[in-house]
Design brief:
The structure is a single chain. The chain is built from 14 helices and no strands. It is an all-alpha fold and 301 residues long. It folds into two domains: 120 residues, Alpha Horseshoe (Serine Threonine Protein Phosphatase 5, Tetratricopeptide repeat); 165 residues, Alpha Horseshoe (Serine Threonine Protein Phosphatase 5, Tetratricopeptide repeat), CATH 1.25.40. Helix 5 runs antiparallel to helix 6. The protein is globular.
């Protein structure tokens, strides 16, 4: 199984916890809460523990990431960090930050990569740097179980996408990311001081698909948010539309969420068929196939 397949499997199985952590009412009406600064934020509603003024920086997220990837993979990163700490010239710092961002991307650790892309964006103020930083912060939020860090990830994502849209308001990728981040912040009881309710996030995503009906990321997230708000038939319709597209290589995620939606609708045979499609796509991964078989067995019993 190649690296891209591994990432998709992790995303599919891991994102269910993220998806079901979102508050159903947050997708329907505005909630009030608190917001912190760029690298600190406050949470405390929706039953989540408060994370008052927790300052999150690249060092804080790098330590657990290094533990996850092991000492061998961490060695090159440690060397680059040492070089960066000693660098004095701005051009040298930028080059090292760029290399560190790539290294963290290579080992699929979104949180430290996000902070390095953010540093690059602050130095160069380029659209792509802000966009990538925002996307990585969204990913860091999605896969983090640390409720103390999650508010900072969301806050940084929103600020990055806003900065990207200031540079180019026509690019739909930044609009999509901002819409996702607006919905995510609701699950933390946060509110953007400049607006950004969950419904505004959904509106941004719907506007993206109105302009680009086949936009993969916007459709995927709209389908996920429909699942969370209990609109499973809408989710089914959206995932089926994604599967019908011919311009995307991996359809594992929409098939998996389609199966989950069918299951919630009580359409067991359709759910089994969708799960079987997932299993066939990952036929070279026995562990994934075994997990899918468990889902199918539960439906048959």
């Amino acid at each position: 199984m190649n690296t891209k397949q591994i990432v998709v499997v992790v995303a599919v199985l891991g994102v269910m916890g993220y998806l079901y952590s979102l508050p159903p009412k947050g997708l329907i009406k505005e909630d009030s809460g608190h917001t912190g600064g760029q690298q600190s934020a406050t949470a405390g509603q929706m039953g989540r523990p408060a994370a008052a003024n927790v300052k999150v920086d690249v060092k804080m997220v790098s330590e657990p990431a290094k533990a996850a990837i092991g000492p061998q993979a961490s060695a090159a990163i440690n060397d680059l960090e040492s070089q960066l700490s000693k660098a004095s010239a701005a051009t040298e710092k930028v080059a090292l930050q760029q290399e560190l961002a790539r290294k963290w991307d290579d080992v699929k650790q979104a949180a430290p990569a996000a902070f390095y892309y953010q540093a690059l964006a602050q130095s160069r103020n380029q659209f792509q740097d802000w966009l990538t930083a925002g996307n990585r912060f969204n990913d860091a939020y999605k896969f983090s179980q640390d409720t103390a860090m999650q508010p900072a990830f969301v806050t940084n994502a929103i600020q990055a996408f806003k900065a990207a849209r200031t540079l180019d308001a026509k690019k739909l990728d930044a609009q999509t990311g901002l819409g996702i981040a607006y919905v995510n912040q609701t699950s933390l009881g946060m509110m953007d001081p400049e607006g950004g309710s969950p419904m505004q996030g959904i509106t941004l995503l719907l506007d993206v698909v109105a302009k680009d009906p086949d936009n993969w990321n916007a459709n995927l997230n709209l389908g996920q948010f429909a699942m969370k708000s209990g609109q499973y038939q809408k989710a089914v319709d959206r995932f089926k539309k994604m599967i019908a597209q011919n311009n995307h290589n991996s359809k594992l995620e929409p098939y998996f969420y389609l199966a989950e939606s069918y299951k919630q609708l009580g359409m067991k045979q359709d759910a089994i068929a969708a799960y079987q499609q997932c299993k066939e796509m990952m036929s070279d991964d026995p562990a994934f196939g075994k997990r899918i078989d468990q889902f199918i067995t539960e439906l048959k019993n």
